[in-house]
Amino acid sequence: MNLELWRSFLGWCAVANISLLFLWFFVFCFQRDFIYRVHSRWFRLSDEMFDVLQYALFGFYKIVVFVFIVIPYFVLVMLR
Q1: Which tens digit of pLDDT belongs to each residue from 46-59?
Q2: How far is CA 45 from CA 9, 55, 59, in A?
Q3: Quick check: helix, strand or coil at residue 46?
Q4: CA torsion sign, 69 to 71 to 74 to 76?
Q5: 23: domain range?
Q6: If 0-12 CB within 10 Å is exposed, 13-18 middle and 19+ buried, where does residue 10 land?
Q7: CB neighbours of residue 72 within 10 Å
Q8: CA-to-CA distance for 7 and 25, rounded, in angstroms?
Q9: Count of domains forming the chain
Q10: pTM over the 0.85 mark
Q11: How many Å apart are CA 29 and CA 36, to the nearest integer?
């Protein structure tokens, strides 16, 4: 595989993953109570613990996307 193919692949992966992150954020902002009710049926979660878990997962997902997709994409763009 050549670098141009990797650059294109990582670029589209970045678009898809960042879009998913924004979708998750907006669903959490506008439908938080519904999501909490669904998950509290499956797991014993307090309101505060649910918020902490969501915040931690947002941060973890964002770091993974940036470290493994966005930064390598920009490196390949700069190598061009």
Answers
A1: 999 999 999 999 99
A2: 38, 14, 20
A3: coil
A4: negative
A5: 3-79
A6: buried
A7: 16
A8: 27
A9: 1
A10: yes
A11: 12
